[in-house]
Design a protein that fits this description.
Blueprint: H1 6-18, H2 30-36, H3 41-44, H4 55-69, E1 73-77, E2 80-83, H5 85-91, H6 100-103, H7 107-118, H8 139-142, H9 148-172, H10 176-189, E3 200-202, E4 213-216, E5 224-230, H11 240-252, E6 257-262, H12 268-275, E7 280-284, H13 286-295
Helix pairs in contact: 1-4, 9-13, 11-12
């Protein structure tokens, strides 16, 4: 089944804390909660979109945060949690879930959410969707399925997807010579040729020997990476004959490393031809090209930087 969101984790967490008599780390419950929801090994090891944290642990931490804002749990010491009398009173009503609808009935939680709105925080909607006089959260807040960190990371992924699509459109509009120079610039940006322009050049022309560019990995040119850069139209894939011709050109140049780049895609046969070669042949299709350009800041600029801060537990160590 899907990994439960933080709202679905609030009741299982509170129930487990009710069985404890001393503060405890909630990470103790990762296995038992995974068992309760029937998570597979793959799901248990799934990480957040950024890859920095275990997804279930991250969502469990946010369940703790929301329960804490409602004062259903308390943290008397670092990294440890204990249920409050309000939390036990809620469990005594035998709830089937703990949702935002229920949490909004707790004044500390409602005050926290409203403070966020009035300071400019939006939760899948606009600030006027929260009516403080009525003391209610609207449907926008009720749809708050993902944690704030997940929403930020998903938004970044969406922006990255749009950027890669725009980049690929620009690349496909380049002239062949512009495309060849782009690939050399990208490989230099990735560290090939020690990143030095003097060690790379576009070949081109009628006597290019089937190559569009070359990068010397060392100043003496003893280790070279040859480049084949073919834009090709979208929908027209590079096939195995082109790869075999490229491998043949590498042999002519007595080279054992080559990079074949296209703004289109490679057919399965082309990929097999590259994999079956005794030479080192790297294939970069349009999607991967756009990813690498964004990753190495080729043709892009950093528009904004967003800082996400968290508690420094070490600072508060006694």
């Amino acid at each position: 089944m899907p990994i439960p969101n933080y709202q679905a984790l609030q009741l299982p967490l509170l129930r487990r804390l009710a069985d404890e008599h001393t503060p405890i780390s909630i990470r103790k419950y990762l296995d038992s909660i995974s068992d309760e929801f029937g998570l597979t090994e793959e799901e248990r090891s799934t990480r957040t979109p950024s890859g920095t944290e275990n997804l279930l642990a991250n969502r469990l931490a946010w369940a703790r945060t929301y329960l804490g804002k409602a004062e259903l749990v308390a943290a008397p010491k670092r990294g440890a949690l204990i249920i409050t009398e309000a939390g036990r009173a809620l469990l005594a009503t035998h709830p089937t879930e703990i949702s935002l609808t229920m949490l909004k009935e707790y004044k500390p939680f409602l005050a926290w959410v409203q403070a966020g709105y009035t300071s400019g925080m939006e939760v899948n909607g606009s600030p006027d969707q929260v009516h403080s006089e009525a003391g209610s959260l609207t449907g926008a807040a009720e749809n708050l399925v993902h944690t704030p960190r997940e929403r930020i990371e998903e938004a970044k992924k969406e922006l990255d997807r749009a950027l890669r699509s725009d980049l690929l459109g620009r690349v496909r509009a380049m002239t062949p010579s512009e495309f060849e120079r782009l690939i050399i610039q990208l490989l230099l940006g990735m560290g090939y040729g020690q990143g030095r322009d003097v060690l790379a050049r576009a070949i081109g022309g009628t006597n290019d020997g089937g190559m569009d560019g070359v990068i010397n990995q060392d100043p003496l040119g003893l280790d070279r990476v040859y480049i084949q850069a073919k834009q090709w139209k979208e929908g027209s894939g590079v096939s195995s004959p082109e790869i075999r011709n490229f491998v043949g050109a590498l042999n002519i140049h007595r080279a054992n490393k080559g990079v074949f780049v296209t703004a289109s895609h490679f057919t399965p046969e082309a990929k097999r031809a590259a994999d079956g070669s005794t030479l080192q042949v790297a294939l970069i299709d349009g999607e991967r090209l756009a990813e690498l350009m964004a990753e190495h800041n080729i043709g892009v600029l950093i528009r904004d930087n967003v800082e996400i801060k968290d508690i420094d537990d070490g600072f508060f160590e006694l």
